[in-house]
Specification:
about 475 residues, alpha/beta, 6-stranded mixed beta sheet, globular
């Protein structure tokens, strides 16, 4: 495989890479002085990685699958002026096979043939988060799971700030870890949302506190099977040891029996059991910590709907206690716990119909949680790019709650096949068209819910773009 697409630029040098591999030792930045480093992906994380590698003395090439016209010309010119080579429009074989180190952006699959071939040649292939792990001096709280990562990450960050600490919040959510790592690192904590893709390419990553919120089928287009995805999520704890904490949703069948030997484990679930350190009784979170301390936090002012948000708030509380936050600061954060944009966000009302935006529901389980959380009857808008899951769980959750489903995107026919004969449905070419039809079909007291159960990349740049279009379409209803 010489090239994946036509190159617009390539390196002039065809010399072989060094015979001595780049050594990666945790706590020590890799010695890349005079080495060839390839960064796959011209996104924010790739640029941050490239800047550090350049400062460390490497010869840096950024290889990008998208054409150069997709990027800001000023940014491209600025990067080139520093000495970074940019290849756009595809990946060149020698750029990977003659490198001494390859750093992948989170969206670049480790199973890409060029990455596989490079690893077979003994070339280290790591992720942006792994590179950051060798540079970070600030302790890390890492949050993963299929659903709820962003909400919990943001809430933990706000809780730490409310307690008077400085916290960087980022990772898979917003600002990459490398952006923080190449700076002065003056915060007390790093709070990072961590995806399975990042964990796959970060063998040395060791968070001081790690949280796994849940594991349900997702990204089956990128994993061999569901078990491979489960194993990926479990690796967040692989390097944890004494003094570290692992917070687990004990009600999740894929976490209830997960007991790595290294960290102290804190378990939570809505119902009380002997092994759980946090559970809910009469709108109160009850905690019995391994230290023997028992305490409670009121949910009287907690306003988010759904069972999943009760699980999320327990994860936040246990994380805060694990890193030594005072109880008063925790209660204040619980009282202020709010949904983020595009996460079951009420965006308006029109003719007695409520409109909810859950564009972040990019998998079936997240969409099921949305359907179970909002008031019925529901007019559902779903669809997008298929990720390998089937949609029967949507039918089972929505058969008695969904009045009508409007399906969009590449997966609409696949979803329609499972819905057919059980839930009334139609299709739309655009999200704006779907909103207009939903408004026409809904009756006063109904809920129009955007819960796609699919990724957004067939029609939008990301889930936030999809949510923005939905909000604008709802606003347009009120303006005639």
């Amino acid at each position: 495989m010489e090239m994946e697409t036509t190159m617009q630029e390539h390196r002039a040098s065809e010399t072989d890479r060094s015979e001595t591999p780049v050594r990666m030792k945790l706590g020590h930045p890799p010695d890349v002085q005079g080495r060839k480093a390839t960064v796959a992906g011209l996104g924010v994380s790739g640029i941050a990685s490239a800047r550090w590698l350049l400062q460390a003395g490497a010869q840096v090439t950024i290889s990008e699958i998208r054409p150069l016209e997709a990027f800001d010309p000023k940014l491209v010119a600025e990067l080139r002026s520093t000495g970074i080579t940019i290849e756009a429009g595809g990946h060149l074989k020698e750029t990977f096979f003659q490198a001494d180190l390859i750093v992948l952006s989170p969206g670049v699959p480790l199973g890409m043939p060029l990455c596989v071939g490079a690893r077979e040649k003994g070339i280290p292939v790591i992720g942006e988060m792994e590179l950051a792990a060798h540079i970070l001096r600030t302790p890390v709280i890492a949050i993963t799971g299929t659903n709820g990562k962003s909400t919990v990450t943001e809430c933990v960050g706000e809780l730490l700030r409310g307690a008077g600490l400085k916290a960087f919040v980022g990772g898979n959510l917003g600002t990459p870890l490398m952006t923080y790592a190449i700076g002065p690192q003056t915060d007390d904590w790093v709070v990072a949302e961590v995806s399975s893709f990042q964990l796959d390419t970060s063998p040395s990553f060791r968070p001081r506190a790690a949280v796994i919120l849940n594991i349900t089928p997702d990204h089956l287009d990128r994993y061999a099977d569901f078990n491979a995805y489960i194993r990926s999520k479990h690796t967040i704890a692989r390097n944890q040891g004494p003094g570290d904490h692992l917070i687990l949703n004990d009600a999740d069948p894929h976490l209830a029996h997960f007991e790595p030997a290294g960290p102290a484990i804190l378990r939570y679930g809505i119902d009380e059991t002997e092994r759980r350190h946090a559970f809910i009784r009469d709108r109160v979170v009850v905690l019995h910590m391994p230290s023997g301390i028992s305490t409670r936090f009121s949910l009287a002012s907690f306003a988010l709907p759904g069972r999943h948000n009760l699980e999320n708030v327990m994860a936040v509380i246990l994380t805060a206690l694990a890193v030594g936050i005072p109880e008063a600061a925790i209660q204040k954060a619980v009282d202020r716990f709010r949904a983020l944009p595009n996460r079951l966000e009420k965006v308006g009302e029109h003719n007695g119909v409520s409109f909810y935006n859950d564009s972040k529901a990019t998998n079936v389980d997240a969409a099921v949680r949305s359907i179970e959380s909002v008031p019925a009857p529901i007019v559902l808008i779903a669809g997008g790019r298929h990720k390998g899951s089937d949609y029967r769980a949507l039918v089972e959750a929505g058969e008695k709650r969904i009045r009508h489903a409007i399906l969009i995107g590449e997966a609409r026919e696949l979803i329609a096949a499972d819905f057919s004969g059980r839930i009334s449905l139609s299709t739309a070419q655009t999200l704006e068209e779907a909103v207009e039809e939903a408004a026409a079909r809904a009756k006063p007291g109904d809920t129009v819910l955007l819960a796609p159960a699919c990724s957004s990349f067939d029609m939008f740049s990301d889930y936030a773009h999809r949510g923005k279009v939905f909000r604008e379409a709802v606003e347009a209803l009120s303006h005639g």
